[in-house]
Amino acid sequence: MATLASLEHSLRQSARRGREVLERASRRKVDWGELPHTYTPVADEDRAVYSKKTMEELQEAFSTITEFMAETHIHCKRFYDSVGCSQGSNIEKKHVPRYHKHIGATKIESSSQLRQHGRSQGQGPPDDFYMEVAPGLYTISASRPGSQQQTQMIDLDPGDTVSVTFNL
């Protein structure tokens, strides 16, 4: 019986404290009518401009990443061509066939095929890229400075090998 009495006493205390908190909260004045200064409503056309700007920034970022990957690929290939794969470690011996030759289950091969008469000075020979990717739908874009970007969409199933050529 003593435990039942202490339980009732505890419940009454909790109820009394709850009422006190409710009374204090109801005495406070809160004005929810004005929006904070950090929020400004955005019109649909402004949202479209912002979205387009964001997409352009993302395209530029991915383009920069692709340029760095291409440059790294060229330097890496030159290094292994000069050193020779037989002198490297097991990791290096696995690296060359994986990233610089046509071996693997699902790959995208991208070749920028430039016609000899259309080539500008200093552009050099066409670049080949070999990538292993998971099956799925991919959009691949390529461009050179001063030329229009070309885009191709491919759908890869497991085990597919696709060759994508851009005439830049």
UniProtKB/TrEMBL annotation:
Region Disordered: start-end pairs: 108-128
GO BP term (any one): regulation of non-canonical NF-kappaB signal transduction
InterPro entries (alphabetical): AKIP1 (IPR033214)
Transmembrane segments: none
Compositional bias of kind Polar residues: 108-123
GO CC, any one term: nucleoplasm
Signal peptide annotation: none
Protein name per the record: A kinase (PRKA) interacting protein 1
Taxonomic lineage of the native organism: Eukaryota, Metazoa, Chordata, Craniata, Vertebrata
